[in-house]
Specification:
single chain; mainly alpha; Helix Hairpins; 4 domains; 0% strand
């Protein structure tokens, strides 16, 4: 399929938007001001993937692609680096970290590749990382960060051997949280809730489930079911605040049944 535009044209458009006589808003942006958009576009791509809509995904990937092009344009204006430098750095990294593809190393599984990837990263960065837990971004969502931290700990042997041990840890933390709640100490309840959430994130990682993704999908389901309850009550002429819990629960179950049918 032939397109009138190329990656080079995209870079040129971005430069024109930033140049005198271009767009005032684009010209005012900085690395810091664009941070929120980088996050927003990432989550919109994830939403498009959930929807299984190629057309929506194509559009959102374009919006996400704009972000590194935008940041590189700002950096180029300061003489720090260009988008070509970004691409060259990425290509070098991909080749260097896949010696089984671009070299003679033999790797036969994803697990072996993960171990080798971490080994190469450590060689690249020397001894600058003081801990096995170093390298996890501070700004990650908390559940995802818990997943990453526990994953790094597991790579140096700090892990359980069986899933039932992790389940037992979750139940232990749940019991301690219940004790804190019974004691009425808000500070201890917060600590114990954190321990419980961390244990659940660990369980997800151990079972190869991403807790951040799991929670995000649950939130989406909650929103859809809640909106169904709202819409049905509105159709019946019943304000939501006047509906009984039993009436709302029945509509909630109705929404769940509809979800199951749609998956068949």
């Amino acid at each position: 399929m032939n397109h009138p535009y190329s990656f080079e044209r995209l870079v040129s458009i971005m430069q024109q938007l930033r140049a005198p006589g271009g767009c005032p808003w684009d010209a005012e942006q900085t690395h810091e001001s664009l941070t929120r958009y980088l996050l927003e576009e990432t989550y919109e791509v994830m939403e498009a993937i959930d929807e299984k809509s190629p057309q929506h995904l194509k559009e959102e990937l374009g919006d996400l692609l704009l972000q590194p092009v935008f940041h590189a344009a700002i950096a180029a204006e300061s003489g720090h680096f260009t988008i070509d430098d970004v691409i060259a750095t990425l290509c070098d990294k991909l080749i260097r970290r896949h010696p089984h593809v671009f070299g003679d190393l033999e790797i036969n599984s994803s697990d072996q590749q993960i171990v080798n990837w971490e080994k190469i990263k450590k060689q690249e960065k020397g001894d600058e990382r003081p801990s096995a837990l170093s390298g996890v971004p501070d700004h990650l969502p908390a559940l995802l960060k818990a997943h990453k931290i526990s994953e790094k700990a597991s790579r140096v042997g700090f892990d359980w051997e069986h899933a039932d041990q992790v389940f037992a840890k979750v139940m232990e933390e749940l019991h301690e949280f219940e004790e804190a709640w019974a004691g009425g100490d808000p500070a201890r309840m917060e600590d114990e809730m954190g321990d419980l959430l961390f244990a659940i994130a660990n369980l997800g990682r151990f079972l190869q489930l991403n807790p951040e993704e799991a929670l995000r999908k649950t939130i989406n389901r909650f929103q859809k079911r809640f909106c169904h309850v709202e819409a049905e009550l509105l159709r019946q002429g019943v304000p939501m605040q006047n509906a009984t819990l039993e009436e709302m629960d029945e509509l909630w179950e109705q929404a769940k049944r509809a979800e199951r049918v749609s998956k068949i």
